Amino acid sequence: MNKYIQYLKSFYSSIVKPDVVKTRPIHIQIEPSTYCNLDCPHCPRNEYIENSTHMSLNQFKHIIKAVKPRNVSLNGLGETYLNPDAIKMIKYAKQHDIEISTITNFIAISDEHIDCIVKSGLNLINVSLDSTNKETYIKVRKSDAFERIISNIKKLQAKKKELGLSTPHLRLSFVIEKNNYTEMIAFYEQAKSLGADAVLFQIFNTFDQEKGELFEGVNMKKLEEMLLEISVLEKEYKSPATNIEFLKSRIEEIKNIYNKKVQNSVKKCIMPWVSLYVSVEGDVRYCCIFSAKRFSLGNIYEVDDIMEIYNKKEYQDFRRRLKEGKLPDKVCADCIPESPFDVVKRSKWTPNFIFKK
Predict the structure, then answer these.
(1) Domain coordinates of the chain in residue numbers?
(2) Can you tell me whether residue 195 is helix, strand or coil?
(3) Tens digits of residue pLDDT in 168-179
């Protein structure tokens, strides 16, 4: 099927929101590893992972064959590039005309890694940076790796320039929490100086955990002022692109999350109609915030076609509850769901998500 026809069918499905979906998920998140070289206070990894492991290349190939997606993101509770087959996974996806991105802390990266990443065909690399200096990085990530990450980013950009390539597009992400939120404007300026294509400002998600202390201290008035200022800067600079306009449009929902007062509506969510998440063990889940084992809908390694899992009763019930505006599970409470039209706009700050840049 032509990829754009498949996108249109998925777009239609995300608007109509049937209980039974006939179109394959166009997007999947795949967890290549549960090993990690960080121990971030906001991450649920230690609560959910008993024995760390890597996904094999053959397992990855099986997922691609079973789902036949158009867009893949390698991310999860571990660090993508600790998997020795990560580059091979990227190349395999590109051989099958799949747009692929990775999320990484970009610490365990050698010069050889950078050369391979740039030559792999990877469309987008998201570096989780969250700060503008090593002091803040230590608070957020509990690691003194800030300067190494900045060095690796500069090497990545230099390698792209050396080879005359625009990809992988570089996106820097920033999870908004009490230890770093005052640096948002400086972070945008830093991203520009590093030649980033995009910046993703993310709302803090507790992933079914009690992490209220990381919400405390975020001044909503100050946050709103910074969103407005970054919006002005983005219009002036043109690049990097950001998701600031989306956040501005949903500021009341953001306040609800950080103030923990009002439950946001879930009706806009389209994830179970267009996407899914596959853990390193092969467990299929609704999306990445459903990190716990109890959310498994079936194991993709045990089927040849994702549609054997994608329309199970649990999936249909989940879709129905979202469509009716009912909270399917408490983990959805800290999410600001995207509408079909929000996802189309995502291409601005997620290059190659739908349209090639």
Answers:
(1) 1-100+278-347, 105-261
(2) coil
(3) 999 999 999 999
